[in-house]
Structures are given as C-alpha cells and as structure tokens.
Amino acid sequence: MVRLTLGLLALAAIVCDSTVSAILPNPNRRIRRQASNCSTPVDPAIKAPKPNPWLPFSRNETATLLEWLHAPAQGLNLTVYANFTPWDNRVGVTELLIPNKTDVLNYLEGGPAPVRYARVELYFGATENPYTEDYIVGPIPVSEATTINPLNFIYNKGNGKSPVYAADYQLLIQWAESIGTQISDIMLDILGTDLNTSRIIASDPKQEDGRTILWAQYGLYPTSEYDSGSILPQGLFLKTDITGRKPEEWKLLNIFYDNILYDGVDEFRKAWETPGFNKLTKQVDGNWTHTGRSSTGESIPLDERAPPISIQPEGQRFSVDKDENYVKWMDFEFYTGFSRDLGVTLYNIKYKGKRIIYELGLQEAIAHYAGNDPMQSRTAYLDSYYGFGPYVFELLPGYDCPTYSTFLKTSYSEAGYSFTNKDSICLFEQDAGYPLQRHTSRDFITVTKNTVFTLRFVSTVGNYDYNFDYNFYLDGSIEVKVRASGYIQAAFYANNEDYGYKIHDAISGSMHDHVLNFKADIDVLGVKNTFEKVAIVSDTVDYVWSPIPRNTMRLERSFVENEDDGKINWPTNSAAMYVVVNTDEPNIYGEYPGYRILPGSGSPIHLTIQNSSNLLNSAEFGTHHLYVTKQKDTEPRSAAAANSMDLGDPLVNFGNFFDSESLVQEDIVVWFNLGMHHVPHTGDLPNTVFTTGQSSVFLSPHNYLLGDPSRFTSQQVEVRFTPGVDNSAVVKDAPSTPKCLVVDMSPMFPDFSTYQGGEQTRKFPYTDEVDPNASDP
Amino acid sequence: MVRLTLGLLALAAIVCDSTVSAILPNPNRRIRRQASNCSTPVDPAIKAPKPNPWLPFSRNETATLLEWLHAPAQGLNLTVYANFTPWDNRVGVTELLIPNKTDVLNYLEGGPAPVRYARVELYFGATENPYTEDYIVGPIPVSEATTINPLNFIYNKGNGKSPVYAADYQLLIQWAESIGTQISDIMLDILGTDLNTSRIIASDPKQEDGRTILWAQYGLYPTSEYDSGSILPQGLFLKTDITGRKPEEWKLLNIFYDNILYDGVDEFRKAWETPGFNKLTKQVDGNWTHTGRSSTGESIPLDERAPPISIQPEGQRFSVDKDENYVKWMDFEFYTGFSRDLGVTLYNIKYKGKRIIYELGLQEAIAHYAGNDPMQSRTAYLDSYYGFGPYVFELLPGYDCPTYSTFLKTSYSEAGYSFTNKDSICLFEQDAGYPLQRHTSRDFITVTKNTVFTLRFVSTVGNYDYNFDYNFYLDGSIEVKVRASGYIQAAFYANNEDYGYKIHDAISGSMHDHVLNFKADIDVLGVKNTFEKVAIVSDTVDYVWSPIPRNTMRLERSFVENEDDGKINWPTNSAAMYVVVNTDEPNIYGEYPGYRILPGSGSPIHLTIQNSSNLLNSAEFGTHHLYVTKQKDTEPRSAAAANSMDLGDPLVNFGNFFDSESLVQEDIVVWFNLGMHHVPHTGDLPNTVFTTGQSSVFLSPHNYLLGDPSRFTSQQVEVRFTPGVDNSAVVKDAPSTPKCLVVDMSPMFPDFSTYQGGEQTRKFPYTDEVDPNASDP
C-alpha cells in the first residue's frame, strides 16, 4: 500500500528539472600496489563478438523518439510532463521492445541485426475513463520509415489497454484527508494523533460490482529521518467509493475500527461517545524503528576490530564490454539488457562457446499479504507495476559488493525523463567460502578453490530491498538467488492474531508470501529440447540373485509431453530431478545431455492462497513452483506491469500459455519461482535480515560434458605425503603465487561522501547539458 | 563396500609401531605486517568459565585406562594389538562416555563436576561366535574406586553386545581370491584382467536364514596413484556362504554375470564356452579417474591469475581456550567434544549469556545405494561404524579454510593406539558475500556487514569427503551444513539403467541417498520447552468489512503434544514453521520466545526407501525429516556405531524412542536430517563437486529477542545524501578503518611440504616418547 505513492503514474516525487551530475571515475576502487615491482595487472579488455541486440536505448534513440512522439504529425496530443494534468495525454515508459527470439537467433547465426522497436506506454487522460495503452514504434532511431501502432502481439488479452482507476491520485489523497477533519477529536483520542501527525495510506483501488472502491488507513508519520512508515500503521480504516472523476461524487462508505464496521462518521461518533467504547492500544514511534547502530550502548566483544574482507590480488579475471553490456568470465559469456519493469535480464548465456540459456531474468514479483483488516487483506503487490528498474539504486562498495567489483550504471526512461543510477550493478568474483572439490586419503590430498562470479543488483521497491544475484560456478552451474531485507509492512495488531505475531506495542508482523517468477529459456545444444523428469521411487523388486523380493529404490524416467503437464511442483522429499535435455544429441554413453533445474537455498515457494480474491487472473505464474511451455515470440513474459491495473482482465494471463502444445524436442521455456513465506517476528525489527530471507534455484549441467570441467582450473593443489613422516610432502599442480604480495587496503575502506543516488535528465523538451549523439544513455 | 577395509575391527592397515612426530607451530599461518607502525593485534586469550566436562581423555587418562584394562586383575584376558589374532580378546575404542545431561546441568549450575567414565569396546574372539561388547569403566583417571561393568543404559536393545560376522576378514579375502584361480582364463576374457590386476571387493556379510552370506565383486586396481578404486567396479560377482569360522566349510554358492545367476564355477564355465555367450563392455582406468589438473591442455581464460582471497586485517575476533576446547565469538560461546564415532560435537551453546542449545552434533550417516546387481543393491553404509573421527584429516589452509584460521587437532583412541590429526578443525570468520541487512530510500542508504563464524571439519570416510560446517550469524542464527565431495561409488553398467546414468564406457553412477542425522537439544530460557507448529494455510474467510467471503490465507498454531506426533516432514510448499518455544516465558507482547528450525540450502531429505531390506531396524531416524522426543539420559544418541553389525537387532533402535511421552513444556530434543539424493552424472567424474552436493538447516531466533541483535554491531554504515547532488553525502556510524592498511599476503600462499597426515602413538604397552602426564591427548 505504501508503494502506491511510487507508482507508475504518480511521479509527483520526481524533481522536475535537474542538472546532470558528472559521473566521475573512482580510481579508489582498485587495489593499488606499493613496491615498484608491484604493477597492477591491467583489467582485461574485451569487445563483444556482436553488437548487443538487447542494448537499451541510447540518449539519442530516446531523445529523438520522444521528439517524434510529441510532434503534431503523430496526432497523439501529448503534454510534456512539466505541464501535465491528469486530464491530459502523456507519454509513460519508453524503452526498447525486446526483439523476438526468432529474429535474434537469425542475427546471432549471421543474419541482419533485428530492427529496433520501442515499446511506448501512453496515458490518455482526457476522458471519463482514463487508460494507458502500449504502442510499438519503429524502426528506431526514428526515420521516415518510423510508424506507430498499438502493441498487441505480446499481450494475450488481445490489446495493450489498461484502465487507470487512480488517475486523480493527488486529488484523491486530499479528499481522503478531508474526511479526517470531521473526526479529528476522535483521532486524537483513539490514535493519539491528528491529521498533522498521521497520514492517509491508500491501497490500490479495486472494482467491486462496477464501483471503484478504495480502502485507506491512517498511519503515523515517522518521527525520525528513517524510512519507517510501513511499520507504523494505526487501527482506523476508511472505505470509500471513488467511482468516476468528480470528487463531489466520491463517498465515504464506512469507518472500520476494532473489527466493527460503521456506516459513516455519525454512527462512528455515536459509538465513540457511548460509554464502554473499546479503545485499542496506540503505537508510538521510537528507536525501535531506526536502522542505525543501536544507541543503547550494548556492544559485542571484539566487534570493533575490522572483520575479514575479500581482496583481489591480481586484478579482474573477467572482462566487460561496457558499450555493449557484454560480460565474459572463465568459460561463461553473456549480454545484459535492462528494463524499467524488471531491471537486469541476461541474454545468450554461453558456456564453453555454446549457448545454454537464451534468456534469464525476473518476470514479476508478488508480495501477497493477509489479515483481518481490509488493508492487509486486500494488499497483493505485483511489483513490476512500480517497476524494479527505477529502484536499482547505487550500491555501497565494501558493503553491498566487494570494493574491487566492476560497477555499471543503469538507466530507464519514463514520462520524458531519463533516470540514471550509477554503480548500480556490480560484477565480481569471490571465494565461495568452501572448496569446489576435495578428496583425502591416507597419503594424499587434493583440493580445488571455489571462485564464484556474481552479477548483483538491488532493487528497493518501497519498503523492501530485493537483492538479485546471478552466480556462476566453475562446474558450469548458474544460481539465481533472491534475498529480501528492508522494512516489513506491518499491520495494526488488533484482531490480527491469525495473521501474524504481535511484535511491538500495537504492531503485528503481517504474514505475506514473496513469489518471484523467473524465465529461463534454456537451449541445450540447440533450441529443440525436452523436459525430462527422473523420479526417485521406493519399490519392492525381485532380483534373479535374491531369494526374496527386496525393498529398494529406483529411477523412473519420463518426459513432460505437452503443456497440459507443464505445471510442476518440487516433489515431496525432493524425490525427482527435472532436466532440460536434448534427446537428439545423446552423449557417447547414450545419455541425454542436459541442464538440470533444482532448488538451491531457502526452499522456494509458490503462492499459498488459491484463487486469490486480490490477484484474480494475474497470478497464474504463482500457482506452482515451476512451469514449462513452448517458446513463442508472442509469449515473451509471464506477466505485464499493467496487469496490476486490471487484475481480472490482465494484459498477460499466464494461464493461457497452457494450450496443450507438444514439449517434445521443441523450443521450450522454463518459468520458475523464488520466494518465501514471511511471518515477521521481533527479529524483523527494524529491518528483515537476509539470513533466512533468501531462496535460490540452480541451473546445473547434467550429463552435459563428459567430466567435471573444474579439472581444467589452475586453482587447485595436490599434496602427497607419507603419514606421520615430517617434510615428506610433495606438492603438485599448485597455482603460481602472485608476483606482488603486498596489498594496500586503503581502497577497501572507501569514502562514501561521493554517494549520490539517482540522476535524472529531461529528454523532452531536450536538456542540452548532454550531447544527444553520445552513445551512453 | 570399499569401506569394510577401514572398518571397526580391520585395522591391518595401521602401521603397528611409529614414532610420534613433533607438532610444529606454523607461524606462517598468521598475517604479518610490514611497516613498523603496523603491529599485529594479539589474538585474544580466554579461559573457559568452567573445565569442559566433555573434554576427550588426556594422554594420561587413556594410558592408565589401557594399563588398567590389560591388568590380570580385571580378568579380561586381553591381547595387545601387536600380538593379536582374531581368536583373541582385544580392546577396541576407549573414550570418554558422554556424561548425562542431568549431571552436567547440575555442574553448570554450580554443582560438582560429573564423574568421568570411559566407554570401552571389547572384542571377544575366542569363540565360535565372536562379538563385541561395550563396558563402562570409571571413575577415570583410574583409581582404587574404578570398576568395570557392561554398558547397557544407553542402548535400548538392553545390552551392548554385537555379533562380529567378519571376524576372520583377512582369511576371508584370501579365500575369496582363491576362487579366482579357478576362473582366471574366463576373467582375462570377460574382464580383461586377472587376479593381479583385479581385486575382490567384499560387502558387509549379512544373515540370511541363519547363514552368513557374503557377496563379492571384482574391481580394477587403479593404474594410477589416485584413490579411484570405488569407480572401477567390474561385472563379475560371487555369492559365498561364510558361516562359521572354518574356511574349509565356506562355500561359493553362485557366480553372477550379466544378470544371470550361475550355480558355481562349472555351470559358469559351461555357459562361457557356449557360442553366443554375451560378453559385456570392459571398463579401463585412465585419466578420467584422476583428480589432478587435467592434462589435456585445455585452459580457462584468465584462470592463471590469483583469484580473490579473504584476509583478516586486525587479527582474530574470537577466542579459543585450547585446553578446554572452549570457543567464544561475538555473543556466542560453546564447548566442543570429539568422539571416534562422530567427530566434533558442540555443547552448551550460549547466546548473549543464555544457553540455547545443550548439544548439537552428528548422530549417524546413511549412504544407501540401489541397483540391479547384488553389490549396489545390498550396500547401505552406516558410517559411524567406520567412524567419522578417524578420518577427520589435516586440512589444507587456503583451500579448505582461510589461512588465518585457528586450527585445532583431533585425537581418538582405538586398539591401544592414539591417533592424532593436527590442524583438522578450523575456526574462522569470513564475509558471507552479501550484507546482513540493507535499506535504501531516495536519500538514504544503510548496510550492515555479514560476518559469519564457522567451525569446520572434513571427514573422509572411504571414498566420500563429508564437509561439516557450523555457521554462526550476527542475527543469532546457527546453520548446520553438510557437503559431499570425493569419489562416488560407481556400479558396473550392465542392467543398471533403472538405477543410474551410464557415465563411462562400462560404469553407471549408482543412485544413492545420503541421510545424515543430527541432534539439536535446544533449550529456550531453560530446559522446559514445547514444539510449536505454525501452519500457513489457504482459506476462504468472511470478514465484517467485506461484502463477500475472501480467498486468503492465515496462520494455524498448534503444539506437538506428545511423541506420537513427533515424526515430522518438512511441509509441502514449506507451508509451516516449526519452533521450539517456551510457553512459560512469553515476551512482553505475549508471544512465545523460541528458536525456529528450518531448511537452509539444498532441500534436506529423508530416506527414499521404505523398510529397507538392508538397514532393517537401524534406520528409524531416516524415515522423516525431523523428530521431536523427550530428552532422556538413556537416549543420548539416535544410533550406535555397532548397529551396523546387527541391523535387525541394533543396540539403539530410534523407533523405540517414541512412546507417547508428553512434549508440552518438557525437556525436548529435536533430531533432524541433512542429505541429498545423489544420482551421479558425468560431472561427478572424477569427483563429486560441492556445488549442488550440500544441504543445511538453520536454527534461528524467533521472537526470542525484542529486535534484530545485529543493530549492535559496529560493522554497519549509514549514508544520507541529496539525490543528484554531488558530495552531499553525510556518513554516519561507519566503523573505524584498520590502523594498518598494508597486508603481506605471503602467508596466504603456504608451503604444503609440511603436510603430514595422521600420527599414531601406542598407548599400551606405552610408547615412552611421550610424557604420560601431559594433558594433551
């Protein structure tokens, strides 16, 4: 609910004109050497084998597109953001429309680059029923050939139109606040606050019997500078009918307090004036909401000493083409894209020169709450509506990622502005903290280092900080991991015992499910693949050598033949393996090479609630743990940001992907969920910690190569010795010691005074501080 | 099967007399500073608050115990190991009998130290039916008051006696090999090897209808110096009857080849001579079994550069009393014990001054195989029979653990010898690789470092290397994690399609389950606790504020009332939380403080096979994911090493722990399983890698404190800034930068020529190189 203020169309918080801040290189972020014989190895340069077809729009592409859209010739009657009212038409998101897989494969195999098109979201406000609609505009950069047409083919609703029920959001909040003036004496008595010290928290409006219903709740303003609003709800709720666009027709329907529904102000006042009226405990803000170091003076033994830290003694062991968003680490390489809705997506991931994954990335994130009160009960976020991209903020080196990381910036464009967050993706290697392989015998030991390469970004969508990690391992595995920290969304405690723990004087830790859907378009030795299930079953079996039948186990191999069987749960007791295999390319032993998908950490979940009254037809990707469908250019994503605006009739209903198509040696796509049930307890105050708030899935080679590929690494050692005999050991294969053995740690303790947060640039009318021909966004 | 040669009574591999090698301090394992103002912080010293009641026997305690046992006065007629034959009596394991919890609690609360007793395992060989029996001997150190009695009270079989069916193991192997002389021409033809190039692999003998049946299989001798025997099985099997102790009465019953059972040598020879006899593919050893760096010349880009490495800039931030095996890190402290059967156990784990876990440690490890052939089908290891303690080998600094770790040695005593592995436990801190907490808003960021403290040891039981981690977190969580690397046990490929993948010319990756049982005796604010289940359920609910019922979810709280309900599986879709709570001590908000138990990584499993024909009554701890029972001094462990010797009638049948006792506000114990299904594929050659071969469980505070305890750490930072404005950031709470910022990395690249492996010392008759009064083992 707090997230609405950050929503798609509620951009009031944006500073409307700003200067572009220079992005200064930060030489401190690299290890310096002291001695003269200690030269820093040069970070290796690389050029992408081909231009990145998923590269977000350049400054020039965006600026010329916006100019073209606003030109009278297009007849769109758009108003620039600075002059915009909710009754105008306006441009929303403008970004690259992800090219079709068929076109990109052709390009990767030597064909022409796919024509670049824009996805343009337009808001139409000059109507009683405002709506947004998506358009496809191209070719980009604009030329005489450029046209604009409704974008329909990627939405199985049939069109890209979505109603906007909160078009007059600013007016709405003012109107809702005015209700409070009628009950300010009651508020002061039962909440301890008035309209100056409480605020209106509005949920997303929903359609009920043709009316637009909005529930609102009072919440404390934080008394500190901390971002703690989401854990300071109060126990008073308002039900309003905000149908239409005339505030004079909007109505307060009910007041809700202590599980009693009152028919308006008069009935509520009468009850309050009646002796014996039950007044609930009031919540008060305080130190308990502050994320800073606790000021109570309690200290932890030896905690003031600097803890262990990771260093990188010989420079980067990976290379990045920053112009093309292309990354190569060891035997892996990939491109990245970035979108306003979903943040970073990885494309064309190759391993040892062959594509294993065409596309890997977030699709949507549900945070579904429940409660006895209407705010918690009616809250179910689909976070791509707010967008992950805008909140991929600058990272803190040494805390969020190692100081020696390669940091990249991210940008997106909305409402005529470009927004840039510098240093908001980090790429780094780190020791896993345990070896990759080891074996000891009485006279022998061999151990291999486990260096993991990570692409990380964090998106703080309102109260929650989602950390996304894509981890690459030397055995060919890829792990996708999500963690959640930040503030919980708390409930007012009253009557919420069945929905959470009481975690402070008048606060309940509102139970909720996080379900984050990902797409993994795996291609094993080509696009034609099959989804194999290898079940591990208990059985009683007769053997020719056994006098009696034996209780044992065996494998049961089968294929998921078509989409009717494509909705899958992780099996009880993990008693099955799921593998994307290529049955046309058996290995020399006759087994099918494949990539297996399996849970990593934190037992990823699907949504608890069946047929959610909140999400209606927009959570079909949350009913199971994973899904397999046939790849189609018309089904590129399991959801759409605008689904949130019409949950019963969303742009993309993932359930409709399942139409009995064959999955045997077809181009198949796996969709899997990460996430966790979260029933916050006192330890979630002030913030949830990542420790138990994480889940991951592995994509791991399975009979894919003929042996463990980590045998090729130089970072392993073998020692042979005679037990109990001193100095008898012979060391084999040990990697060479770095030439420079002196490290200056100063760069690992950076000065954060340059931390800057997001930058924005007006792209229409164009802000001339920036060269429109620069290739940088 | 290969593990039998390392078994409880088959100590032939031990060098029978050896000198004690000096344990040299290794000053290289500490970070040195260069500049004169760079003084190494002193590693903090600590003295355990009380002597460790679980401390393993000292040299003196062991030596005087052995002398006492062998004295004629005791009438045990024991033979010293050097002169031992299977027809003699002999001492086996001698170690501390873990004191009763009731006695230790009394001691910890100010009472006298528990009297120390020995568990003494004796082998009685001068009989047609050899057996072992456990005795309790004490007080220790021996005195006039010392007595010896059968040890019965911890075994719910009623006594500590176990039959020894493989007493004449050496003779048996010789006898089985002699069978090969009758078929050496056939072997050469169908295996490509003879008795010089193949060996007999014998499984554990089992009782069938009153007879002792032993199945044996031929296997290649490794042609290299690598420990690859377990992946070189061949397709020829022998069934023998080895009942009794007279080799002349032992019989070859059958020969098994290509799924055909032959009645002895003659029938097999006749078949072989018949035209059309099907000869299976032969397996040949080669580079594919070698764990060293692959010699094929394939290299990985940039892999020769040294990868990132963890350093410890300001010395240890924890302290260890090495005399008392007592460890203190931040707000955690605990004692350790060490046993031959199970390796390291943690005791009396306190957090912020209060005990949260009385005992935490491994109980038993199953590795259960299956297959169409009698060797794989009949193999189910209970690894404590071989013992984890003996194989807790020396670790490799910089590979197994950071070089700056504190390394401890381990010792155990068996057959009159003490065995010591130096540097075989490591204690270290490391950055988790991701923050513990973070939150960003438009003008603010706060992040907390996530430093984790780990106690690690590795036990290589035959082919498998089990890595055990006990991880401690700043939020109060403890993670128990097991990983498996090393060589798999492969099957011969023929007819094993339903039991594994074909992973080389004639080898199948034999499917198996790893199930490792742990005990967690959790005490939340005292010993009287209750096991709470908080289920997360989908439901349709009527609310007073909603016109229609709503599809939502809610919590369902209940207690596991008694042991009848004490066998629990992790719920489908993780839809329940399990918490050990103290209902007598609700917090100020009325919630029960507790420690929650939940899966961490790798989806821990229970055994697939129901009523295993191999394990019979000895795997009752493997039927579910976790168990809750009432704590009893007579039920200290869920298994016994000797269970393996009589699986149908084991010393400890865990199933009998469940006798309807109340679990409501009683002293309760949680037993949980880690492990994984393992269906090896080509990537398991030559060794399994840890990446997907790991599982963990978290024990995590749950409403235990009133907030997140990590708020007290100094290792966090807060930055406030004005978005887009340069140099506006204000940094708060940043930890102080280390005084010394220059690090010499030389110690991180240690010289392994001092690697030594295990040491042994004869304790009876006493080897006089060592002072028997030294307190060290």
UniProtKB/TrEMBL annotation, chains A, B:
GO cellular component entries: plasma membrane
Protein's UniProt name: Amine oxidase
One Gene Ontology biological process: amine metabolic process
Source superkingdom: Eukaryota
Gene Ontology MF term list: copper ion binding; primary methylamine oxidase activity; quinone binding
Domain DUF1965: start-end pairs: 230-294
InterPro entries linked to this entry: Cu_amine_oxidase (IPR000269), Cu_amine_oxidase_C (IPR015798), Cu_amine_oxidase_C_sf (IPR036460), Cu_amine_oxidase_N-reg (IPR016182), Cu_amine_oxidase_N2 (IPR015800), DUF1965 (IPR015328)
2',4',5'-topaquinone sites (modified residues): 464
Cofactor note (record): Contains 1 topaquinone per subunit.
Active site per the UniProt annotation: 383 (proton acceptor), 464 (schiff-base intermediate with substrate)
UniProt lineage: Eukaryota, Fungi, Dikarya, Ascomycota, Pezizomycotina
Enzyme class, UniProt record, top EC level: oxidoreductase
Copper amine oxidase catalytic domain ranges (all copies): 310-710
PTM comment, free text: Topaquinone (TPQ) is generated by copper-dependent autoxidation of a specific tyrosyl residue.
Organism of this sequence: Morchella conica CCBAS932
TM spans (from-to): none
